[in-house]
Amino acid sequence: MARASKREQIAQAALEQFHLRGFHATGINDITAAAGAPKGSFYNHFSSKEESALEALDRYGAGLRFDILTAPGRSPLERLRAHFDFLRRPVVDSGFSQGCLVGNFAAEVGDHNEVMRAAVRRGFDQWAALIAQVLTEAREAGEVSAGLDADDAARFILSAWEGTLLVARADKSSVPFDSFFHMVFGVVLH
Asked: How many domains does the chain have?
């Protein structure tokens, strides 16, 4: 197996540090120390902490398993539930210490950095569009009400998910997840 390039090591370390510490609390030294790289090597691959954070967002998004939403073999609502169940596991496994990097960046830097805000917005828009696609399929399959507005419901579900992550982390409990799954799949989409 080929050894990861120094850029790859730094980019992966940046993702992990931003997710663990947040944008403001993560310094270049934290990233390079986690990557086992000299500080100067960071600037060989990234022009700024912001640039590495933007790549971290892309990498994080790639790990959200959006393919679960489109995989054949399950009904639309089963795929949607499986997607959120997949996302719940790492939060619980981390002891409720890590939420959604996109949501974390939205709360932390969205008001202060237009480039980061725009990237976060694009991420949420793409995610909501995929959820809306699944909800449209569910409506066409008769799994949800024929009057369900898939776009509005997708934005609501995504917002409810992000809120659930915050409360779960504050409570250090999976009870908010139980409420999310009950309300979304047992009430809203029933």
From this structure: 2
